[in-house]
Amino acid sequence: MRSDKGLENTLIEVIQIALRFHDTDSRAGYNSFLKGKSTANERIEKYWKQLRNHMTEFYIQLFKKMQERAEFDGSNNIHIECLRFCFGHLIQKDLKRAMKEWNEHRVRQQNNQKSPCGIPNVMNNWPEKYGGRTFEKVPDEKLINEFMYECAEEPKLYSDEFKTLIDIVEPELKMPNSIEEAYVNYKELIVKIQRFQDP
User: Fold this and answer.
1) Other beta carbons less than 10 A from residue 82's beta carbon
2) What are phi and psi of 30, to 5 degrees?
3) Spatial distance between the Cα atoms of 51 and 159, rounded to a whole number of angstroms
């Protein structure tokens, strides 16, 4: 496996080396993970820019405007939790939609490049159709279970304590289906929580 030297790859490196530690080929153990300069990541960099322009920038600007209007204080844990509670599910839904669209879109042939073209999901599942082959190795099931236990905890959008607080101040609250509903919920919850904390 090859990656750049970004911090986001540290855990991946440890897992990759551990999974390949007892193999005997030339790319086993520490040789199974290479760090270096990314020279062939133009497509993904272009995608990150596209994702920011078409989705994440909207949320960034919305939260900045809320901050400018003193509706959101990034140093206030209640405001942060409330923002996550109200907008988190919508952001997750948008990210899943973007992932599905990316994995089902057609990658076009690039001029003067040998990189494959086709639909990412299909290229991954049937590499031989594109002149490639799978490099999958069957991992040790016990090791996989250990990694799942240690590293794959489902991330939480907000704390259990915050959910308990919401159940107290607004027990009938419905999860928002739109940005507008999330914004209204956020503003109302902040007021109700402040009243609850400062009787």
Assistant:
1) 23
2) -65, -25
3) 27
Handedness of CA 186, 152, 12, 93 (dihedral sign): negative
Sequential DSSP letters for 142-169: HHHHHHHHHH-PPP-SS-HHHHHHHHHH
Q: What does pTM read for this prediction?
A: 0.76
Q: Is 14 helix (H, G, I), strand (E, B) or coil?
A: helix
CA-closest candidate to residue 169, choices 72, 92, 85? 85
59-118 pLDDT, tens digit per residue, is 999 999 999 999 999 999 999 999 999 999 999 999 999 989 888 988 888 776 677 788
Q: Which residues contact 11 (CB under 8 A, 6 or more apart)?
A: 151
CB 117 within 8 Å of CB 106: yes
Question: Phi/psi class of residue 158: alpha, beta or left (left: φ > 0; alpha: ψ in -120 to 50)?
Answer: beta
Q: What is the largest CA-CA distance in the chain?
A: 69
* Residue 59, CA atoms < 13 Å, CB-side half-sphere: 18
The count of residues in the chain is: 199
- β-strand 2-3 against 34-35: which pairing, if any? parallel
CA dihedral 76, 79, 80, 82 (to 10 degrees): 150
Nearest to 175 by CA among 98, 91, 101: 91
